[in-house]
Amino acid sequence: MSYSLLSRFRGAIAGVVLGQYLGTRCETEGWQRPEVAPDLRMRSLADVLLQQDGVEVLAGLQTLALGGVEETAIALVPLALYWHDAPSALQASVTYLAQQGNWLDEVHDSTLIVVTYLAQLLRDGDRPGPPSLTKRPQQHLASMVDEIRPQLCQPTIEKQLQSLLISLQQGHSQAIAFPASSDSGVLEATLIALYGMASTPADPGITYRRAVQTSTSPTLTGAIAGALSGSWNGIAGVRSLWHQHLGASSQSAGASSQSAYAIDPWLTLADRLFALWCGLYDPTHELSLSDMAPLAIAVPSATGLVHAARMSKP
Asked: Has residue 293 got a pLDDT over 60?
């Protein structure tokens, strides 16, 4: 069950929060535990999806006023989970929100890259064994570049991605060139997170560490890497690192920070998004682990069947 779709929904959501925590900690002197709570825009977007029950999603998202900030790629992770089996709808929603919010081209392209790659990782449900035994993350990266090429606002970003693919295929150490005119750190964060995930998909610890220690935007890079790694390895790849780094956080952090970094509420959020995707979400019913276990068994990867059932929901 480690690599069920439910597990990977949980891994993506929890991975974002863990990556934010490690990145924020990296930015502090002496790796002190942060006193601040994680960025909650991801939760806000998930709440909109749940409130809309999958209907008129874009109209609901407009109320968030995302504004095209660098963290938009992370805020849209719940949308990537919900529409992972409908890539055209996912990509169209990113372009629509970018137009409505007047996003920078770099923010649009980086967000498109993150959500499309995450969705491709989730759609890979036909693995013969643990994902650590395959090189498919690199194959998905190449496929993602082909898929989004017509929608990129900046042609130079495609060249960046092609260079990244060559480095991965040849086994080079990390060496990524960034455009000198970059208006924000989101492109750098995206490329470093992609490299970390695709080069060491079987080792989340290395993926996180490389992400936060080699970027000028550790919090953002760690969050992106966490979402990608979690969507591939599932919650098992996140939980051990979570307890390693956050197990004692309650002893040094304030009450608000302690509550925000508790893992169970984030897993519950992922469970609700999974139930929404399945077409079985009921806002009047409190989900429990016993509710989710049959779903995890029945729907390990059958995206087409569940998508058809969801679309036929009254």
From this structure: no
Question: Helices (DSSP H) in the chain: which residue ranges?
Answer: 5-27, 41-52, 57-62, 72-75, 77-82, 87-101, 105-123, 136-148, 155-170, 186-199, 204-213, 218-233, 236-246, 255-260, 263-278, 289-298, 303-311
Higher pLDDT, 235 or 243: 235
C-alpha neighbours within 13 Å on the C-beta side of residue 238: 35
Distance from C-alpha of 181 to C-alpha of 121, rounded to nearest angstrom: 31
Average pLDDT over residues 175-194: 71
CA distance 96 to 90: 10
What tokens appear for 74 in the block?
């992370």
CATH number at residue 199: 1.10.4080.10
Domains of the chain: total: 1
Structural domain of 208: 5-311
Pick from 46, 45, 79, 47: which is nearest to 62 by CA?
Answer: 45
Percent of the chain with pLDDT over 90: 26
Q: Rounded CA gap, 235 and 257, in Å?
A: 21
Task: Write down the pTM of the prediction.
Answer: 0.83
